[in-house]
Amino acid sequence: MSPTESGHLRRARLRHFLRARREQITPEEVGLVNVERRRTPGLRREEVAALAGVGVSWYTWLEQGRDINVSEGIVNAVSNALRLEECERKYFYRLAGLNPPQRTEGHRCDSPDARMHALVEGWAPNPAYITDRYGRIEVASRSARALFRIDARGDNCVVKFFTEPSTREKYPDANEVGRGLVAQFRAQSARFPEDPEFGRIAERLCECSPHFAALWDCHEVVGPNQGMRKIAHPQAGVMVFDRLVMRVPENPESLLTLYIAQPGTGSAERPRELVGSHSGVG
Fold first, then answer.
1. Which of 17, 34, 234, 274 matches a 20 to 30 Å C-alpha distance to 84?
2. Please, what's the b/e burial string for 157-196 (b: 16 or more CB within 10 A of its CB; e: otherwise)?
3. Do 189 and 73 have their domain in common?
4. What distance in Å separates the CA atoms of residue 269 and residue 263, rounded to the nearest whole number?
5. pTM
6. What is the sign of the dihedral through the CA atoms of 99, 101, 107 and 109?
7. What is the CATH number for 250?
8. Boundaries of each HTH cro/C1-type domain copy (predicted)?
């Protein structure tokens, strides 16, 4: 993809993102009196401009995705007006062609090193795996392969979730899981604006999964999502895990996901049995 094409794509994403966020905020939320009936939901462009302290024409050009210079101060002002979360702000920074303020993530390596492999396998009997920038499995422990029915390398977590009904059925809270996967995938795509593979994956999924297409149109973004994860297993029942996600230090493009079985659940009662059985990845 040429720099010109990359710029067009980035500005198109910026246009959709700002409009989606603007339409999700009510006038009452930002202290405006809603005295008239509105034809469209959310705030108007002139209201966002006033809240951010910028000109209406300038904000309109920004939301239209025009090729204009955007400063860090403007991004922060608009972020405040739209009440963006930290991850959404970073996404906005990247779409505006700026580097978000953050600590240096280190140098990229071609693949997770031997220590990460050892950590993943040594996490047994609890599952662990490492994914690349697209959500594809790079390394997976034996327990993760058995529980999630994934290959040691190559399966894409996002694609698997939205194209295999048997994968979605494993999650009692499948709607929440799917929403998080899409929002994280979109945030990842902004970190690599010149990589066309994100667009190809999204296009294929939009064609074959109306569920993915609807979530993709929401333009939600989150960082590596963690917290509790419930997984239904035919022998152990509903297993409950605490889930920790972090970037691999030597290769910040990759994400390490660790599961810890909560006491008193099916997962905690019979974790070792699951390793020997075959029961997507979330």
1. 34
2. bbbbbbbeeebbebbeebeebbbbbbbbbbbbbbbebeee
3. no
4. 8
5. 0.73
6. negative
7. 3.30.450.180
8. 17-89
188 with 244, same domain? yes
In this structure, is residue 102 part of a structural domain? no
Write the DSSP symbol of residue 193.
T
**Amino acid in the structure at residue 9:** L
Question: How far apart (Å, rounded) are the C-alpha atoms in residues 11 and 118?
Answer: 42
CA–CA separation, 168 and 282 (whole Å)? 9
List pLDDT tens digits, range 110-166. 455 677 888 888 888 888 999 999 999 998 988 888 888 786 567 899 999 999 998
Residue with tokens 């990845």: 281
For the chain, the domain total comes to 2
Give a yes or no: residue 148 inside a domain: yes
Identify the CATH number of the domain in which residue 59 sits: 1.10.260.40
Same domain, residue pair 165 and 247: yes
Is residue 124 included in any domain, yes or no?
yes
Strand partners, 243: 227, 259
Spatial CA neighbour of 277 closest among 182, 173, 144: 144
- Cα gap 22→80, rounded to integer Å: 12
> 111, 251 in Cβ contact below 8 A?
yes
In contact, 24 and 42? CB cutoff 8 Å: yes
Quick one: 51 exposed, middle or buried, by C-beta within 10 A (0-12, 13-18, 19+)? buried
Nearest to 5 by CA among 196, 280, 179: 196
Q: With contact defined as beta carbons under 8 Å apart, do 142 and 275 qualify?
A: yes
Residue 154, C-beta contacts closer than 8 angstroms, at least 6 positions apart: 136, 137
Which pLDDT value is given to residue 180?
92
Tell whether 107 is covered by a domain: no
